[in-house]
Specification:
The chain is an all-alpha fold. It has 3 helices and no strands. The relative contact order is 0.09.
Length: 102
């Protein structure tokens, strides 16, 4: 899997012996860097998921709006009902998009 954040594989450019840094501190630093990179990848994945769900919801709302327009042409008396149905569906989809980001 190609990752925008490459895993640290090379040794640091400084050594613990040169700067009198304990091995424990070096390990702790590396662990913190690993955790930060992992958190960044999770946030990036969440961002992509929200974008995907939002685009899907937008297409669905667009389709429903087109269907509403066709229904109005066939039966103009149902305008309020069509609008209520489409608005309800759009609201549910907006809620789903918002929940995806949490």
């Amino acid at each position: 899997m190609n990752s925008p954040i490459s895993r640290r594989t090379a040794a640091p450019t400084w050594s613990a012996e040169q700067h009198r840094v304990s091995a424990r501190l070096v390990r702790a630093t590396h662990n913190e860097i690993d955790q930060t990179q992992a958190a960044a990848l999770v946030q990036s994945t969440r961002t992509q998921a929200v974008g995907y769900v939002a685009a899907s919801a937008l297409r669905a709302v667009e389709d429903l709006t087109n269907m509403e327009e066709l229904a109005l042409q066939r039966s103009p008396l149902g305008e309020a009902r069509y609008r209520a149905i489409v608005d309800t569906a759009a609201g549910v989809m907006a809620h789903i998009v918002a929940e995806t980001g949490r």
